């Protein structure tokens, strides 16, 4: 599992771990049913306090993304929905808001923005970009 | 109060006409890594020296493992490690002799761990034959750390352990301390200016300002609750400062030409949508690095932000 911690981003480290695990699952780089490193191992790999990793795993477990099997370790749930459509849309909207704010700063009209959006939308092959519905 | 390892209770200490500590109170829970933060001359070193009885408080009390700091004896000191910026080591001795000499103090408590000492020696890449006087700053700080970890203390007090060290040595220090944490329920209290290190290693933060405790909180709680909100009206009109719910404190308000930026302590995930509804303006949330959290606190007049231990 490839996680990267950014200590200057402002996002608490436990949340960075939670987010990155979810993204890795929804991208398929972290397979469903696969085993996660132990709290100890991950805290060593990332050079962060073990309680931080513990907190992240607890949150992921409460959200039904991962499960702890006694004596065996922590696993990605095989039926879990790491990033529901609702959350993916929310994330996209956040990016879009920033982009639109940039458009405002550049003093573009709403028509300009709409036209640019439509054109970019046509340019990318949507079928390839959108996964898992 | 078994679960509090260090308890500062209304500690005052003056040097001549300077009041270094003015009624400082805070607690270090067992198993926590508590970072003591504050500007230069805010009282950090004085506070840590009081905890290990290198200084006596003028009034108030510091209890370590439930024992008043001025009453600490060999039994307690064999469970406390203390590394400061200025460590007193004999420059004429070799590294190996220094270790042997320190080890002799622990013959009675039998807490010195030879295997751990050897392991630290290897990991820190210390030359046993080098004379202490010839060590670089980083190497002698490493030796101090080794001398204070090898007897497996339960409490580690570190005064600016990373001061003047390069990024690589600092990272080695972090890894070592985290290692000890994983291996045994070590409690650590350390002062530092390196806030990115704090984000990695600490789970609790104490901010000292003018000799008083300003913030005493879990690190995650602090970062989850202190945020900057950017309010922008769509039509470019001036946004009025909104009212925040009870329990949310406004730390800082900045009006720029484009927006109104409000840093608050008491953020929750539902707040932006509630604000959008009430004010009808766009609300963006900015996560703050620890540094910005403290700048916001430093410029505000909000009273002490305290959270119960174990909450």
Polypeptide structure, described:
The complex is a heterodimer of chains A (133) and B (311). Chain A is mainly α and 133 residues long. Chain A has two domains: 64 residues, Winged helix-like DNA-binding domain superfamily/Winged helix DNA-binding domain (Arc Repressor Mutant, subunit A), CATH 1.10.10; 45 residues, no CATH class. In chain A, 56% of the residues lie in helices and 8% in strands. In chain A, strand 2 and strand 3 form a beta hairpin. In chain A, helix 2 packs across helix 3. Chain A is elongated and about 60 Å long. The two termini of chain A are 24 Å apart. The mean pLDDT of chain A is 85. Chain B is of the alpha/beta class and 311 residues long. Chain B has two domains: 207 residues, P-loop containing nucleotide triphosphate hydrolases (Rossmann fold), CATH 3.40.50.300; 80 residues, Alpha-Beta Plaits (2-Layer Sandwich). In chain B, the strands form three sheets. A seven-stranded mixed β-sheet of chain B has the order 6-7-8-3-9-10-15, sandwiched between helices. In chain B, a hairpin with a 4-residue loop joins strand 12 and strand 13. Chain B is elongated and about 75 Å long. Chains A and B meet through helix 1, helix 2, helix 3 and helix 4 of A and helix 6, helix 7, helix 8 and strand 14 of B.
């Amino acid at each position: 599992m490839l996680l990267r911690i950014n200590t200057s981003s402002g996002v608490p480290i436990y949340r960075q771990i939670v987010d990155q695990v979810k993204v890795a699952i929804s991208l398929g780089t972290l397979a469903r049913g696969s085993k996660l490193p132990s709290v100890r191992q991950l805290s060593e790999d990332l050079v962060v306090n073990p309680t931080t990793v513990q907190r992240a795993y607890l949150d992921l477990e409460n959200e039904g993304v991962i499960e702890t099997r006694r004596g065996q370790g922590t696993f990605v749930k095989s039926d879990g929905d790491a990033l529901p459509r609702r959350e993916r849309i929310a994330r996209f909207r956040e990016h879009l808001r920033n982009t639109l704010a940039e458009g405002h700063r550049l003093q573009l009209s709403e028509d300009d923005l709409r036209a640019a959006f439509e054109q970019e939308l046509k340019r990318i092959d949507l079928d390839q970009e959108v996964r898992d519905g | 109060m078994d679960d509090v390892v260090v308890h500062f209770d209304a500690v005052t200490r003056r040097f001549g006409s300077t009041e270094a500590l003015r009624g400082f109170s805070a607690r270090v829970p067992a198993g926590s890594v508590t970072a003591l933060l504050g500007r230069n001359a805010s009282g950090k070193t004085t506070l840590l020296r009081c905890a290990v009885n290198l200084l006596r408080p003028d009034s108030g009390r510091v209890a370590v493992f439930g024992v008043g700091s001025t009453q600490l004896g060999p039994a307690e000191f064999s469970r406390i490690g203390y590394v400061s910026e200025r460590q007193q080591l004999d420059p004429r001795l070799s590294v190996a002799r220094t270790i042997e000499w320190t080890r002799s103090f622990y013959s009675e408590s039998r807490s010195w761990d030879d295997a751990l000492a050897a392991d630290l020696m290897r990991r820190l890449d210390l030359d046993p034959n080098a004379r202490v006087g010839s060590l670089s700053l980083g190497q002698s700080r490493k030796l101090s750390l080794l001398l204070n970890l090898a007897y497996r203390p339960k409490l580690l007090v570190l005064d600016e352990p990373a001061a003047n060290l390069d990024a690589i040595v600092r990272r080695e220090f972090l890894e070592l301390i985290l290692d000890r944490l994983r291996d045994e329920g070590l409690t650590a209290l350390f002062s530092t200016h390196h806030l990115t290190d704090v984000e990695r290693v600490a789970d609790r933060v104490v901010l000292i300002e003018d000799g008083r405790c300003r913030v005493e909180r879990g690190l995650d709680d602090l970062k989850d609750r202190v945020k900057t909100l950017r309010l922008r009206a769509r039509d470019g009109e001036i946004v009025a400062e909104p009212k925040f719910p009870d329990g949310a404190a406004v730390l800082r308000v900045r009006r720029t030409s484009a927006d109104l930026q409000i840093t608050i302590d008491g953020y929750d995930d539902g707040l932006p949508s509630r604000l959008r509804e009430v004010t009808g303006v766009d609300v963006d949330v900015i996560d703050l690095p620890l540094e910005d959290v403290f700048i916001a606190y430093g410029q505000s007049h909000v009273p002490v932000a305290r959270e119960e231990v174990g909450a």
